[in-house]
Each structure stands twice: as structure tokens, then as C-alpha cells.
């Protein structure tokens, strides 16, 4: 799930396995002497119950999220405050629109795109606008309150869907594109590896996986000392993106299936990494 890195008001886009459980049997009831033990009768389950579809498993809130980001994502009062244009615009030092536009520029109307975590502000609705009425946006998150808020934002987009899912878990479908906006810096190293693999696996041949996130600012950057302190205090997993390229979180054999491109913004403080999946047989 993303932290409040989203949008400013009146934003307009340019065209662009489970172990088998052995249960102890109930204690057998003694039968009085001289009586014949009754023959057990197996009662079949109702047909309707047998045909009922399985309920999708609700993902567990990851430990890192409950320990580090409860205040930001799991506390409704704080979430409502953070989910405002003024806050999200300030957090990105005025670069929110620029970074959204950079990410959105990789997608086209009519495509089916996965957004693997909710984003504060109008990010989701603007992405849905880019995809247009023929496109489909699928938003997932591990926190029910975040999905509820996103559902309200996307009420005017009938082709958009939302459901609970962990970004690190494998997907059961593939997409024309994936837009991962300021998620990786919020998760531990093992989760970074799992998320990158999951999103790359979910991208169709010819499709793109787009990561927009923090990056190591240039040494001369005036905000470098401040951002390092902010990361150490509030974003303990963000500093890793200063030392490691996003491609290094992908399994080497899977990374070879993609063409990678990287751009940096605002003195290197932010980055966009685009992984385009090679056509089959290429």
C-alpha cells in the first residue's frame, strides 16, 4: 500500500499450501450390552452447499505495515487527513503531478492495468481517466479501509474493480500494464523481491511494469540531508532504494525477459523504472 504520494487539485493530464490437518476423533460413546451398534448413516451435503464457490481468502495485514505504518494507513482518522490534495502535494515537494504524468505516459486508452496498492489523493481516478471507458483498472490493497476509500473515488468508473490482495502474492491473471506508485520504499527487502517478481509475472508480453518511487538524491541536492533523516525516522525501508536499482530485486532469469529503462527526476530524488516484457520468442 502506498503512502500519501498522489495528486494535486484540478490536475489535468496532457494527452498522452496448506498442511493436512488431522483432527482427533470424538470419543466413542459406549453401547449398552446386548444392543446392536447402529450402522452410521452418511448424510450427503445439500447440492447448493456443494456448488457454492469458495470465498477468496482475506490477506493478512503484514507485520511491517502494522508496526511502521499503522498511523498512516490503518487508522481511519489519520488516513482521512493524509488523503488530501494539500498533504500529498506537499510530501512530494510539488512534484506530484509531474510524477503521475510520468507514470501515466506509459499506458494507453483501452488497456487493462493493475494498480497493486492504493494511493492517497486522486491518483487512481486520473489513471482510470487515462485508460478511458474501454480500459480497465484493477486496484488491490491489503487494508479494507483503503479499498473502501478507493471504491468511493472510482465510483464514476464502472470498469474499475477493487479487491483485497497483497502486492507480494502471485496473481492469477496478466495485464497490459502494472503501475506501482511509491510502494517499494515502504516494504522490507524480502517484500521488495516478492513484489517485483509478482508484478513482472503479471505483465503480458509487450506490456509494461512501471515503478515510480524514491531514488538516491544527488550529493549536491539541498534536500538530501533532510530526506535521509525523514527516511531514517519514518521510512526505514526507503534508504535501500538509494543503494539498489529496482532491477536487482527481480530474479535474474525473469529480468532477462524484459527491457529495462530508468529516468530520474528532481535532482535524483525520484525515479521511474519501466520494464517492458519482450514478445514471446524474442
What features would you highlight for this structure?
alpha/beta, about 30% helix, single chain, 7-stranded mixed β-sheet, about 280 residues
Short structural summary:
By secondary structure, the chain is of the alpha/beta class.
The tally of helices reads 12
Strand content: 15-25%
**Unreliable spans:** 3-41, 45-53
Distance between the termini: 34 Å
Q: What is Rg? A: 24 Å
Secondary structure category: alpha/beta
Strand arrangement within the widest β-sheet reads 3-2-1-4-5-7-6
| Element order: H for helix, E for strand | HHHHHHEHEHEEHEHHHEE
Mean pLDDT value: 85
Description:
This protein is an alpha/beta fold and 282 residues long. 32% of the residues lie in helices and 17% in strands. The chain contains 12 helices and 7 strands. It has helices spanning 47-51, 63-68, 70-74, 76-82, 85-91, 96-104, 123-131, 144-153, 189-201, 224-234, 240-243, 252-255, and strands at 112-115, 136-141, 161-164, 175-181, 203-214, 258-265, 270-277. It has a 7-stranded mixed sheet. The longest helix is centred in the C-terminal third of the chain and has 13 residues, at 189-201. The model is unreliable at 3-41 and 45-53 (pLDDT under 50).
Amino acid at each position: 500500500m502506498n503512502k500519501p504520494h498522489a495528486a494535486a487539485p484540478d490536475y489535468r493530464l496532457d494527452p498522452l499450501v496448506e498442511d493436512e490437518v488431522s483432527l482427533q476423533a470424538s470419543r466413542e460413546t459406549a453401547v449398552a450390552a446386548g444392543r446392536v451398534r447402529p450402522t452410521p448413516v452418511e448424510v450427503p451435503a445439500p447440492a447448493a452447499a456443494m456448488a457454492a464457490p469458495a470465498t477468496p481468502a482475506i490477506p493478512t495485514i503484514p507485520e511491517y505495515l502494522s508496526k511502521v505504518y499503522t498511523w498512516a494507513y490503518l487508522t481511519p482518522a489519520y488516513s482521512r487527513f493524509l488523503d488530501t490534495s494539500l498533504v500529498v502535494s506537499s510530501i512530494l515537494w510539488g512534484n506530484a503531478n509531474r510524477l503521475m504524468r510520468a507514470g501515466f505516459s506509459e499506458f494507453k486508452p483501452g488497456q487493462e492495468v493493475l494498480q497493486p496498492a492504493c494511493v492517497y489523493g486522486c491518483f487512481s481516478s486520473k489513471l482510470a481517466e487515462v485508460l478511458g471507458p474501454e480500459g480497465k483498472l484493477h486496484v488491490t490493497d491489503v487494508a479494507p479501509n483503503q479499498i473502501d476509500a478507493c471504491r468511493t473515488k472510482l465510483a464514476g468508473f464502472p470498469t474499475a474493480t477493487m479487491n483485497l490482495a497483497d502486492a507480494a502474492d502471485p496473481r492469477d491473471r496478466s495485464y497490459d500494464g502494472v503501475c506501482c506508485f511509491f510502494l517499494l520504499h515502504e516494504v522490507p527487502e524480502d517484500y521488495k523481491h516478492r513484489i517485483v517478481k509478482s508484478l513482472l509475472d503479471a505483465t503480458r508480453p509487450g506490456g509494461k511494469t512501471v515503478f515510480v518511487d524514491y531514488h538516491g538524491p544527488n550529493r549536491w541536492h539541498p534536500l538530501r540531508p533532510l530526506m535521509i533523516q525523514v527516511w531514517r525516522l519514518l521510512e526505514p525501508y526507503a534508504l535501500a532504494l538509494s543503494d539498489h536499482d529496482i532491477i536487482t530485486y527481480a530474479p535474474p532469469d525473469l529480468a532477462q525477459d524484459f527491457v529495462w529503462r530508468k529516468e530520474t527526476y528532481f535532482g535524483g530524488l525520484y525515479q521511474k523504472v519501466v520494464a517492458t516484457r519482450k514478445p514471446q520468442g524474442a
